[in-house]
Design brief:
Blueprint: H1 7-14, H2 20-31, H3 45-61, H4 63-73, E1 77-78, E2 80-82, E3 85-86, H5 90-107, E4 118-121, E5 127-130, E6 136-139, E7 143-147, E8 156-167, E9 176-180, E10 183-187, E11 191-196, E12 202-209, E13 212-218, E14 221-222, E15 227-229, E16 233-238, E17 245-248, E18 260-268, H6 269-280, E19 283-286, E20 295-303, H7 305-316, E21 318-323, E22 326-331
Parallel strand pairs: 1-20, 8-9, 19-22
Antiparallel strand pairs: 2-3, 4-7, 5-6, 6-8, 7-8, 8-11, 9-10, 10-13, 11-12, 12-16, 13-14, 13-15, 16-17, 18-20, 21-22
InterPro entries: FecR, FecR_C, Ferrdict_sens_TM
GO molecular function: sigma factor antagonist activity
Keywords: Membrane, Transmembrane, Transmembrane helix
Length: about 325
């Protein structure tokens, strides 16, 4: 059975007041969960909250410092995102970053959504945003997302023009609704893709996980019976038609959003990209041959390809651009 960690020790660590012995004890405890599916769930609820709401705030503050370390040693092995936390736990930590942002937003009384705020992507590659409620969205090129809800509303509503992948934070009291032309997608918590480009009469909603309800709305009223979609299903709607067509999702475009588990132990980046290419059915090109020798020691458990690439970018100080099913790894210009 894993030994419990006193909250006081976690507090000391966050204040940089731990002795070397205490720090080593804490990190050894953390590392002991490397083979476990989810270390947080093994803790009592109060300790989970301590880790989620405070530890990651401190770790995020160390990111810039760690990038300096990486930039000095990027021709040798890269083992961590942070000075004190192993990359083997990176997938777990990224999840906590999302949780930390969400919990702080609500605790400080920030509005969940501010109407008329627009997120856009004018670049050619995929662009990620974290919404105030903790949900994550990835906008494709020439796409925009506008918040429609006001603070205090019982729903979280946005308007989409273009194409976007959504990973929605569950909130049973406030469903998430995407308006894309005449088509509306209502969800409690799931991951899915919506395609509704201006100038095109065709709209699509494809579900990767969870369940959504898709319907047509005109003048604030539902026009016709909607359809419920589960994983690997999609809805196709042609503007002006009298029905929504429900189909099985057979395309490979959504494969990068499937959550997979891969591990690497001192593997060159060239080997890492080869494994990711095969796992997610994509093409990954490394533009600078110097990066081929960078090594990675990491365990990505239940993560989509964009999240994995985000963690690799931060740990190796490189830039990963995603355009459709093609990924290009370049040097970081910052």
């Amino acid at each position: 059975m894993k030994e419990k960690i006193p909250n006081q020790l976690i507090d000391k660590y966050l204040r940089n007041e731990c002795s070397k012995e205490e720090e080593e004890f804490l990190l050894n405890w953390y590392a002991s969960f490397e083979e476990s599916p989810d270390p947080v769930e093994s803790l009592p609820e109060d300790q989970q909250e301590v880790l989620k709401d405070r530890m990651l705030g401190k770790i995020r503050g160390n990111l810039k410092y760690d990038h300096r370390i990486i930039s000095q040693e990027k021709h040798s092995k890269v083992r961590g995102l942070y000075p004190l936390v192993s990359l083997a736990a990176a997938a777990f930590l990224i999840f906590l970053v999302f949780t930390f942002y969400f919990s702080n937003s609500r605790r400080e009384g920030n509005p969940v959504f501010q109407s008329n705020v627009t997120l856009s992507n004018r670049s050619s590659s995929l662009k990620k945003y974290i919404l105030p409620d903790g949900s994550s969205v990835w906008l494709k090129k020439s796409s925009s997302l506008t918040f429609l809800s006001k603070p205090g509303d019982k729903t979280r509503e946005v308007n989409l023009q273009g194409e976007c992948f959504f990973d929605i934070k569950q909130d049973k009291l406030r469903p998430f609704i995407i308006h894309s032309g005449e088509l509306c997608t209502r969800v409690l918590g799931t991951s899915f893709n919506v395609k509704a480009y201006g100038g095109s009469r065709k709209s699509e909603v494809s579900v990767v996980s969870g369940k959504v309800f898709v319907y047509v709305q005109k003048n604030g009223k539902q026009e016709m019976p909607g359809v419920t979609l589960l994983s690997d299903q999609k809805a196709v709607y042609q503007s002006g038609s009298r029905n929504i067509r429900k189909e099985q999702e057979k395309g490979s475009d959504l494969k990068i959003w499937e959550k997979r588990s891969v591990s690497f132990k001192d593997e060159p980046l060239s080997n890492v990209t080869a494994v990711l290419s095969e796992t997610f059915n994509v093409k990954i090109n490394i533009t600078d041959q110097r990066f081929q020798g960078y090594t990675l020691n990491a365990d990505f458990t239940g993560q989509s390809l964009p999240v994995i690439l985000e963690m690799i970018s931060k740990s190796l100080d490189v830039n990963c651009e995603i355009t459709d099913n093609r990924i290009v790894i370049t040097g970081n210009s910052n």
